[in-house]
Each structure stands twice: as C-alpha cells, then as structure tokens.
Protein: O-methyltransferase
Organism: Arthrobacter liuii
Amino acid sequence: MFEHKPRPEWIAAEEFLSTAVVHPDEAVQQAIHAAAEAGMPAIEVAPNAGKLLKLLVQLSGARRILEIGTLAGYSTIWMGRGLPRNGTLVTCEYLPQHAEVAWANIDAAGLGEKVEIRLGPALDTLAALEEEEREPFDFIFIDADKQNNSRYLDWAVRLGRPGAAVVLDNTIWEGAVLDPDIDPVNAPGIIEALKLLGAHPRLDATVIQTVGSKGWDGFALARILPQNNK
Ligand code: SAH
Ligand code: DHB
Ligand code: MG
C-alpha cells in the first residue's frame, strides 16, 4: 500500500485541534478502535475533515447523501450526524469484511435507520441506483479506489441534483499529483479526476491542500451546475 508521510508536528497540531475544537463523539472514536481491532487500514478521513463533512452537510441542507468508499463507516457516521431526521445516506463498499465492521459501527452510532450499505463494486451500485430512479442526491462524497475517480465524478453528476455538493478526497497524495512516479498505481486516477473537475461543464470546483495525521493531501469541493451552466 502507498505510504503516507505525516510529520510529527502535523499529527500533534491535528490532535490539539481535534481536542480543542472538533470534539469527535464516542461513536466516531469507537469506529476507529473497531477498525483497528479488525486489522483494517487507518485510511479514514482525519477528525477535522470528518467534522467538515458534517458541517458541509448541514450548511448545504442536504437530505440525501451518497458515499463511495465506506471502510469502517467513520466518514459515514460524521456525515450521518449532519442529516436531518428524515435524511438518508447510501454508502458503497465492495469488501464484505469492511461492510460488516462498518454496519456495526453505524448501528452503534444510532444511524442504522438512515444508512444503507450497498455491497459490491461501486460502479455496479451506481448503475443500479440510476435504474432505481431514486430522488437525486444532495451531497456526494467520493473516497474509494482512486483509479475510478473520474468515473465516480461522472456518476456524481448523473445522480446528483443541480446545486448538489461533491467532495472528492485525496487530491495531493504526498505530491504524487506533481510526480506520478511516487505512486504509479493511484496518481494517474487522481490527476485525471482533477483535470476533469477543472474542465467538466457541469462542475464548478476548488481544491484545498491539507496536512495532518494522513500526511500531505487534500480534498476537492465542487457544485453541480444545472444543464444550462448557471
Ligand atoms: N470514506 C472512508 C474511507 C474509505 S477507504 C472514511 O473516511 O472513513 C476506501 C474504501 O473503498 C475501502 O473500504 C475499500 O474497500 C473501498 N473500495 C475500494 N474500491 C472499491 C470499489 N471499486 N467499489 C466499492 N468499494 C471500494
Ligand atoms: C488511502 C486511501 C484514502 O482514501 C485515504 O484518505 C488515505 C489513504 C490509501 O489507500 O492509502
Ligand atoms: Mg480518502
């Protein structure tokens, strides 16, 4: 697996911010413990990023969330915390072991009624969701296999409503966006998606760089434009 390289002072600053400002609740912290116990990789979003997702859900008034890449449900729980009473979240995961741990965490967080985990390759699930003719999503978080990032962005535009928010995780990847040789497996998909974000007629986007426990990385935030581009 690709090695992320956090500096000790980035980790310390993140811990300070998490304790002083972010205040992760018991359930999100427990999700991290359960993931570690199950031997899953610690590749969930950082606490301050999780809180940002929750706040973005609330600020945008999202009621229907789509997540691509569940892992142990850490980001799922953060976003779920931002949903109103009648809100729903669909999250895509292809590894049954991950989905099992995630379900236990999500249920323990009291979100079992709102969250649906869809098991299988995300591209299959996304096609199935379109077939089901559901109401469009208000908020889409893309955080799975980086090779398919561009495909996930296209699906976000198809399944999201005009004005919906799209968040794409992992946009710097230790600088691999500048030097793909650092990670020939994942860098091309990340770079391709960034170019698509900048060029897509239905997306208006920015990218924020981050440092912290997950190393030097970042995320993109985009808004889905209506067909006529306004
Ligand atoms: N969003 C999570 C982290 C997701 S890690 C959090 O922040 O807490 C990426 C997850 O995507 C892993 O669990 C991996 O198994 C899953 N994944 C990778 N490729 C996938 C695919 N093609 N379809 C569905 N899930 C996939
Ligand atoms: C990895 C994947 C992620 O989505 C992430 O946020 C950090 C690391 C990884 O596969 O290494
Ligand atoms: Mg990620």
